[in-house]
Specification:
globular, mainly alpha, Na+/H+ antiporter like fold, 18 helices, about 0% strand
Amino acid sequence: MNHLINTPSILIALAAIVIVSYLFNLLAKKTRIPSVLMLLGMGILFNLGGQYAALPQPDVRPALEILGSVGLIMIVLEAALDLELRREHSGMIGRSLLLTLLEMGATTFFLSALFHVGMDAPWDRAILYAVPLSILSSAIIIPSVENMRHDLKEFMIYQSTFSDILGIMLFYFLVEGFENPGGSTSEWLLQFGWSFGVSVLVSAVFSYLLVLLLQNIKTQLKLFLLIAVLILLYAVGKMLHLSSLLVILIFGLILNNPNLFFPGKLQKWLKADIVSGLLNDFKLITRETAFIVRTFFFVVFGYSIDLGSLANPLVIFFALLALVGIYRIRAVAVQWTVPKPEAILTYLAPRGLITILLFYAIPPTMGIAQFDNGILLYIILASSVFMAWGMVRNSDKDDHRTLGEVLRETASVGPEHTSSASSEEETPKEA
């Protein structure tokens, strides 16, 4: 069978995966079913096909870790480049942060108790396993909400980005503390505060320098150079145990909101016209790169899934209990933090790329013997399916609302509209 694996066949497979992924994106817009589910299905089919053809099964875990890290960088950057920081958004940002903290804290506590009681795991290991499962997947949420109403889209971008960054920081903070238990709790917290403060300071400095560098590079080849620098900073930050995702987030926010971050006398350092033009190009290349990386990550992850583990009754039992708790907590947290919560918010809680990456990062010495990876797979697949079902279920309401707005706007500019009718139509919008 080795003659089937050659350079042309590999190139055909890679090109076909990208083309099919693009078609999945188009289909997702029509059906509201996340393209991630289709990519996972494609990977599973590749695995089954390889087994049927008796092809060698390679170890794809190293590829998953590399793709996941690059994908994480691009996804957070893509999200940051879409976030406009305005005073009127302060309430939305505060609510999304509060929802993230409340939901992540309660979910971590619930899942830790489940693993501690049900699997007889020590509390430290149970908590370490619970944190990745408490993090929303921006890799799934951000592309899935692209065509939703603008306010809902922005809210979920903020929340999924907060969830990623805070979850990753919490996870590595716990790993550091559990692996070095000699110090007191106060020393542990002091070390975390120091690490976080240094991360923010370093991230801000490097982000400003990168923006200044970007606007002063005269050559045409600059965007991938900048992405390479961001990946380098992320990797070095990881080696130094800093919250290196903050560099990506702050840089994206500065680039998308230059007037906010260059106030007063700092304006003289900003070349607004150049930055504005670069921003459009950078958004395009970031979105395209994130699409490619996300495509191959989920196909490779689907390929790595061991379908045999999904038939274990205990796996199904623990996964079902975890899912019930996750969505019950999500529903209560949304009700408490969002003034007029819409039903679809409860469904938007998938687990994905970050969860997988952090599970791979759990030290072998902190493993739980009774934990089967099938539980992880069930939660990822079921949460994505549940989100897809919720989006399809609520699509008619969203479409009807959008259509009504369009009809009102059309009527307001029609030739038969009187001035009094126009004023009545415009007054509520201003209010």
